[in-house]
Amino acid sequence: FIYKFLFLFIGAVVKSQTGWNVKYYRTEKCTIKGSAVFIWCSYDHPVMLNGVYITVEKRFWFIRTEGEPVDLKEDPEYKDRVTYSCSPKICSLRISGVRESDSAVYKFMFKTNYKTGHLQVLLVSTSVQQEDSDVQLKCFIRCDPDGLNKYVWFINGEESRSRIQSETSQTFLYRSWNSSTDRISCSLRDSKTDQSPEVYAPQTPTVSLDPPTEILEGSSVTLTCSSDANPAANYTWFKKTNSNVKMISGGPQFVFSSIHSTDSGDYFCEVENQLGLKQSYLKLEVKCEFFLNYYYLTLSNK
Fold first, then answer.
1. pTM, full prediction
2. CATH number belonging to the domain at 206-287, selected among 2.40.160.40, 3.40.190.10, 2.60.40.10, 3.60.21.10
3. What is the Cα–Cα distance from 103 to 111, expressed in whole angstroms?
4. CATH topology identical between 120-200 and 206-287
5. Signal peptide position in this chain (predicted)?
6. In a 10 Å sphere around its CB, with 0-12 CB exposed, 13-18 middle and 19+ buried, how is residue 126 labelled?
7. Where are the domains of the chain?
8. What is the CATH number assigned to the segment(s) 120-200?
9. Residue 95 CB: number of other CB atoms within 10 A?
10. Torsion over CA of 169, 170, 171 and 175, rounded to 10 degrees?
11. What pLDDT is recorded for position 274?
12. What topology is assigned to 5-112 in CATH?
């Protein structure tokens, strides 16, 4: 009986000064055809970069490097033969039914919420006035942390040359107000077509009731508020009684587990981020349910 031994090669250690790295426990492995093989690695990333907490969104193993790396689980040659076992900072690959064609260099990749090398608009500071705010924005790209490149700013897709605060135009002063609908983005001056995601104040929120039909006393009722905004907005529910306003919830939903007639009234949802604020109102009417009991009196003559 002849054993066929296969050699699998694992990518070299990848390390950077900013805390991103992948480390493989062995760079070469020999196994028998038809058997199962395990490959291990550890990885690390910064906890926070530029005010953004880093979280891992996807992790996978691959061998093909032409174009975008392909997850081995999605590769027809490996489908149903590979499994991953991952925990924070460690991930292993198991290949079952090893074939001669499996001899290759295996590499590990993890993707996070931090957009490496992509432009983004950062909100640096906000100065609140009576009816508006001055917001200092910064155009950031990881490969230019010191702002040595030259930048361009756009408002609603149109280039804006006013309120630029530095020679390279990396910082920009924007005056926002509660009714603002402007969308702001930036790009490198040499590549205006590659713009950052837009930042903007909340859109007018949509408010709803569940159930949307007649509301009876004692039932469960949910108030829901939703809005589009970037950066993400904070939600607050208020109840207005005559001239008094009371905050009742600090989130997009507020639930009455057993509503009472005294809960009837005017409510509004306030949505706010650093670029603006919007409100929407709704009227809540709770109906009482009456039960009539009939008593019959029988009279008899004695």
1. 0.56
2. 2.60.40.10
3. 26
4. yes
5. 1-16
6. middle
7. 5-112, 120-200, 206-287
8. 2.60.40
9. 21
10. 70
11. 86
12. Immunoglobulin-like (2.60.40)
Reported confidence tier of residue 94, pLDDT bands at 50, 70, 90? very high
Alpha-carbon torsion 206, 210, 215, 217, what sign?
negative
Least confident of 75-89, 108-122, 286-300: 286-300
Residue 73 CA to chain centroid, in angstroms?
Answer: 25
Q: Of 203, 51, 167, which Cα lies nearest the Cα of 120? A: 51
225-269 pLDDT, tens digit per residue, is: 999 999 899 999 999 988 899 999 999 999 999 999 999 999 999
**CB distance 133 to 121 below 8 Å:** no
Find all residues with CB under 8 Å of 138, minimum gap 6, and list them: 121, 122, 123, 124, 147, 170, 171, 172
**Residue given tokens 């590659």 in the structure block:** 194
> Both tokens of residue 266?
């005017």
Calculate the CA dihedral of residues 83, 87, 90, 92 and round it to 10 degrees.
-10
d(CA 123, CA 102): 48
pLDDT in the model for residue 59: 92
What is the C-alpha to C-alpha distance for residues 61 and 91, in angstroms, rounded to an integer?
9
Distance between CA atoms of 196 and 213, rounded to whole angstroms? 43
- Answer for the pair 191, 149: CB distance below 8 angstroms, yes or no: no
271: pLDDT confidence band, cut at 50, 70 and 90? very high
Strands annotated E in 33-170:
37-44, 48-49, 52-53, 56-62, 82-87, 90-95, 105-112, 120-128, 132-140, 151-155, 158-160
